[in-house]
Amino acid sequence: MALYRDEGVVLRTAKLGEADRIITLLTRSHGKVRAVAKGVRRSKSRFGGRLEPFMRADLLIAQGRSLDVISQAESLAAYAAPISADFEAYSAANVIAETADKLVAAENERTGAQYRLLVGALNALAKHAHAPRLISASYVMRALSLAGWTPRLSSCVVCGGTDAAFFSVPDGGAMCANDHTTQSHRVAQPTLCQLEALLNGDWAALQGVTEPLPETSRIVEDWAEYYLERPLRSLRIS
Length: 238
Ligand SMILES: [Zn+2]
Known about the structure:
Blueprint: E1 3-16, E2 20-27, E3 32-37, E4 56-62, E5 68-77, H1 80-84, H2 87-103, H3 112-126, H4 132-146, E6 164-168, E7 173-176, E8 185-186, H5 189-200, H6 214-228, H7 233-237
Parallel strand pairs: 3-5
Antiparallel strand pairs: 1-2, 1-4, 2-3, 4-5, 6-7, 6-8
Bound molecules: zinc ion (ZN).
Zinc ion binds next to strand 7.
Protein backbone atom coordinates (compact mmCIF):
# COMPACT_ATOMS: atom_id res chain seq x y z
CA MET A 1 0.00 0.00 0.00
CA ALA A 2 1.21 3.52 -0.80
CA LEU A 3 1.98 5.67 2.25
CA TYR A 4 1.55 9.41 2.55
CA ARG A 5 2.46 11.84 5.30
CA ASP A 6 0.38 14.88 6.22
CA GLU A 7 -0.79 16.79 9.23
CA GLY A 8 -4.45 16.93 10.12
CA VAL A 9 -7.10 17.91 12.65
CA VAL A 10 -9.62 15.30 13.84
CA LEU A 11 -13.15 16.53 13.02
CA ARG A 12 -15.10 13.50 14.24
CA THR A 13 -14.82 9.81 14.94
CA ALA A 14 -17.16 6.85 14.52
CA LYS A 15 -16.94 3.35 15.95
CA LEU A 16 -16.03 0.56 13.56
CA GLY A 17 -16.19 -3.10 14.55
CA GLU A 18 -14.90 -4.19 17.95
CA ALA A 19 -11.93 -1.92 18.56
CA ASP A 20 -11.49 0.39 15.58
CA ARG A 21 -12.68 3.85 14.64
CA ILE A 22 -13.15 5.73 11.41
CA ILE A 23 -11.45 9.09 11.89
CA THR A 24 -12.58 12.06 9.76
CA LEU A 25 -9.76 14.56 9.40
CA LEU A 26 -9.13 17.82 7.65
CA THR A 27 -5.54 17.62 6.44
CA ARG A 28 -3.21 20.33 5.25
CA SER A 29 -2.46 18.90 1.81
CA HIS A 30 -4.96 16.09 1.17
CA GLY A 31 -8.22 17.85 2.06
CA LYS A 32 -10.74 15.84 4.01
CA VAL A 33 -9.61 12.29 4.74
CA ARG A 34 -11.53 9.41 6.29
CA ALA A 35 -9.21 6.76 7.62
CA VAL A 36 -9.41 3.74 9.91
CA ALA A 37 -7.47 3.73 13.19
CA LYS A 38 -7.09 0.07 14.07
CA GLY A 39 -7.29 -0.91 17.75
CA VAL A 40 -7.77 2.73 18.80
CA ARG A 41 -10.52 1.81 21.29
CA ARG A 42 -8.33 -0.67 23.18
CA SER A 43 -7.00 0.66 26.48
CA LYS A 44 -3.39 0.16 25.40
CA SER A 45 -3.78 1.56 21.90
CA ARG A 46 -0.55 2.80 20.36
CA PHE A 47 -2.45 5.92 19.29
CA GLY A 48 -3.19 6.94 22.90
CA GLY A 49 -5.54 9.95 22.87
CA ARG A 50 -3.99 11.43 19.74
CA LEU A 51 -6.94 10.72 17.45
CA GLU A 52 -9.68 12.33 19.55
CA PRO A 53 -11.76 15.23 18.15
CA PHE A 54 -9.88 18.59 17.89
CA MET A 55 -6.45 16.92 18.12
CA ARG A 56 -3.86 18.06 15.59
CA ALA A 57 -1.42 15.35 14.57
CA ASP A 58 1.33 14.49 12.15
CA LEU A 59 0.08 11.40 10.36
CA LEU A 60 1.42 8.56 8.29
CA ILE A 61 -1.46 7.08 6.31
CA ALA A 62 -1.64 4.02 4.07
CA GLN A 63 -3.84 4.37 1.02
CA GLY A 64 -6.50 1.67 1.00
CA ARG A 65 -8.88 0.57 -1.72
CA SER A 66 -11.98 1.89 0.07
CA LEU A 67 -10.76 3.52 3.30
CA ASP A 68 -7.24 4.67 4.14
CA VAL A 69 -5.57 3.31 7.27
CA ILE A 70 -3.71 5.45 9.83
CA SER A 71 -0.33 3.91 10.43
CA GLN A 72 1.23 6.50 12.77
CA ALA A 73 0.03 9.61 14.60
CA GLU A 74 2.25 12.06 16.50
CA SER A 75 0.59 14.86 18.43
CA LEU A 76 1.35 18.38 17.15
CA ALA A 77 -1.02 20.30 19.40
CA ALA A 78 -3.20 18.99 22.19
CA TYR A 79 -6.13 21.37 21.67
CA ALA A 80 -8.55 18.74 22.97
CA ALA A 81 -7.68 18.96 26.69
CA PRO A 82 -8.05 22.74 27.23
CA ILE A 83 -11.10 22.84 24.92
CA SER A 84 -12.91 19.93 26.60
CA ALA A 85 -12.29 21.40 30.06
CA ASP A 86 -14.50 24.40 29.23
CA PHE A 87 -18.10 23.77 28.14
CA GLU A 88 -18.43 26.94 26.05
CA ALA A 89 -15.15 26.26 24.28
CA TYR A 90 -16.20 22.66 23.72
CA SER A 91 -19.53 23.75 22.19
CA ALA A 92 -17.73 26.26 19.98
CA ALA A 93 -15.22 23.61 18.86
CA ASN A 94 -18.11 21.34 17.87
CA VAL A 95 -19.60 24.11 15.72
CA ILE A 96 -16.20 24.68 14.11
CA ALA A 97 -15.54 20.98 13.42
CA GLU A 98 -19.04 20.42 12.03
CA THR A 99 -18.71 23.45 9.75
CA ALA A 100 -15.33 22.28 8.44
CA ASP A 101 -16.71 18.78 7.89
CA LYS A 102 -19.78 19.95 5.96
CA LEU A 103 -17.97 22.67 4.05
CA VAL A 104 -15.25 20.46 2.66
CA ALA A 105 -17.52 17.94 1.01
CA ALA A 106 -15.18 16.21 -1.39
CA GLU A 107 -12.40 14.10 0.01
CA ASN A 108 -8.94 14.89 -1.28
CA GLU A 109 -10.00 18.39 -2.33
CA ARG A 110 -7.14 20.88 -1.89
CA THR A 111 -8.01 23.10 1.03
CA GLY A 112 -4.83 24.61 2.47
CA ALA A 113 -6.47 27.92 3.38
CA GLN A 114 -9.40 26.16 5.09
CA TYR A 115 -6.92 24.08 7.07
CA ARG A 116 -5.03 27.15 8.30
CA LEU A 117 -8.29 28.83 9.31
CA LEU A 118 -9.38 25.73 11.25
CA VAL A 119 -6.06 25.45 13.09
CA GLY A 120 -6.19 29.17 13.93
CA ALA A 121 -9.69 28.87 15.39
CA LEU A 122 -8.91 25.81 17.53
CA ASN A 123 -5.68 27.38 18.71
CA ALA A 124 -7.55 30.54 19.76
CA LEU A 125 -10.14 28.42 21.62
CA ALA A 126 -7.49 26.36 23.41
CA LYS A 127 -5.69 29.53 24.50
CA HIS A 128 -8.94 31.31 25.47
CA ALA A 129 -7.80 34.17 23.22
CA HIS A 130 -11.38 35.48 22.83
CA ALA A 131 -14.90 34.55 23.92
CA PRO A 132 -15.64 31.04 22.53
CA ARG A 133 -18.87 31.99 20.77
CA LEU A 134 -17.14 34.89 19.03
CA ILE A 135 -14.41 32.53 17.83
CA SER A 136 -16.92 30.04 16.43
CA ALA A 137 -19.09 32.75 14.82
CA SER A 138 -16.02 34.34 13.24
CA TYR A 139 -14.79 30.95 12.04
CA VAL A 140 -18.13 30.08 10.42
CA MET A 141 -18.32 33.41 8.56
CA ARG A 142 -14.68 33.27 7.43
CA ALA A 143 -14.83 29.61 6.37
CA LEU A 144 -17.95 30.23 4.29
CA SER A 145 -16.36 33.36 2.86
CA LEU A 146 -13.27 31.38 1.82
CA ALA A 147 -15.62 28.97 0.07
CA GLY A 148 -17.03 31.88 -1.94
CA TRP A 149 -20.02 32.96 0.18
CA THR A 150 -19.04 36.39 1.50
CA PRO A 151 -21.92 38.57 2.68
CA ARG A 152 -21.98 42.23 1.72
CA LEU A 153 -22.39 44.08 5.01
CA SER A 154 -21.49 47.74 4.70
CA SER A 155 -23.63 48.62 1.68
CA CYS A 156 -26.76 47.52 -0.18
CA VAL A 157 -26.22 44.47 -2.43
CA VAL A 158 -28.41 46.08 -5.12
CA CYS A 159 -27.48 49.77 -5.32
CA GLY A 160 -24.31 49.98 -3.20
CA GLY A 161 -25.85 52.69 -1.00
CA THR A 162 -24.59 52.81 2.54
CA ASP A 163 -27.96 53.21 4.28
CA ALA A 164 -28.57 49.47 4.62
CA ALA A 165 -31.30 48.62 7.13
CA PHE A 166 -32.29 45.13 5.95
CA PHE A 167 -30.48 41.83 5.55
CA SER A 168 -31.26 38.97 3.20
CA VAL A 169 -29.37 35.68 3.34
CA PRO A 170 -30.49 34.47 -0.13
CA ASP A 171 -29.71 37.89 -1.69
CA GLY A 172 -26.21 37.88 -0.22
CA GLY A 173 -26.25 40.57 2.43
CA ALA A 174 -27.41 44.04 3.42
CA MET A 175 -30.12 45.95 1.55
CA CYS A 176 -31.48 49.50 1.65
CA ALA A 177 -35.14 50.39 2.24
CA ASN A 178 -35.74 50.92 -1.49
CA ASP A 179 -34.29 47.64 -2.72
CA HIS A 180 -35.07 45.20 0.05
CA THR A 181 -36.83 41.99 -1.00
CA THR A 182 -39.53 39.99 0.77
CA GLN A 183 -36.83 37.52 1.85
CA SER A 184 -35.04 40.22 3.84
CA HIS A 185 -35.68 41.35 7.38
CA ARG A 186 -34.80 44.49 9.28
CA VAL A 187 -31.35 44.53 10.82
CA ALA A 188 -29.79 46.86 13.36
CA GLN A 189 -26.59 48.74 12.47
CA PRO A 190 -24.59 47.29 15.43
CA THR A 191 -25.37 43.80 14.12
CA LEU A 192 -23.96 44.62 10.68
CA CYS A 193 -20.85 46.14 12.32
CA GLN A 194 -20.39 43.06 14.49
CA LEU A 195 -20.78 40.73 11.51
CA GLU A 196 -18.20 42.77 9.63
CA ALA A 197 -15.73 42.50 12.53
CA LEU A 198 -16.32 38.73 12.80
CA LEU A 199 -15.87 38.28 9.05
CA ASN A 200 -12.62 40.23 9.06
CA GLY A 201 -11.31 38.71 12.29
CA ASP A 202 -11.10 42.27 13.59
CA TRP A 203 -10.64 41.43 17.29
CA ALA A 204 -9.81 45.03 18.24
CA ALA A 205 -13.36 46.02 17.20
CA LEU A 206 -14.75 43.18 19.32
CA GLN A 207 -12.83 44.04 22.46
CA GLY A 208 -14.97 43.71 25.58
CA VAL A 209 -17.65 41.71 23.74
CA THR A 210 -18.38 38.46 25.59
CA GLU A 211 -20.87 36.95 23.16
CA PRO A 212 -22.41 37.80 19.79
CA LEU A 213 -25.61 39.85 19.71
CA PRO A 214 -28.67 37.55 19.40
CA GLU A 215 -29.35 38.94 15.92
CA THR A 216 -25.73 38.31 14.92
CA SER A 217 -25.95 34.69 16.08
CA ARG A 218 -29.17 34.20 14.12
CA ILE A 219 -27.68 35.59 10.91
CA VAL A 220 -24.53 33.44 11.28
CA GLU A 221 -26.72 30.37 11.78
CA ASP A 222 -29.00 31.22 8.83
CA TRP A 223 -26.05 32.07 6.59
CA ALA A 224 -24.39 28.71 7.35
CA GLU A 225 -27.59 26.72 6.96
CA TYR A 226 -28.51 28.36 3.65
CA TYR A 227 -25.12 28.04 1.97
CA LEU A 228 -24.20 24.63 3.40
CA GLU A 229 -27.72 23.54 2.39
CA ARG A 230 -28.29 21.90 5.78
CA PRO A 231 -28.45 23.04 9.40
CA LEU A 232 -25.50 22.97 11.75
CA ARG A 233 -26.72 20.63 14.47
CA SER A 234 -24.16 21.81 17.01
CA LEU A 235 -25.30 25.44 16.61
CA ARG A 236 -28.91 24.48 17.31
CA ILE A 237 -28.13 22.82 20.63
CA SER A 238 -25.63 25.37 21.89
ZN1 LIG B 1 -30.18 49.70 -2.37
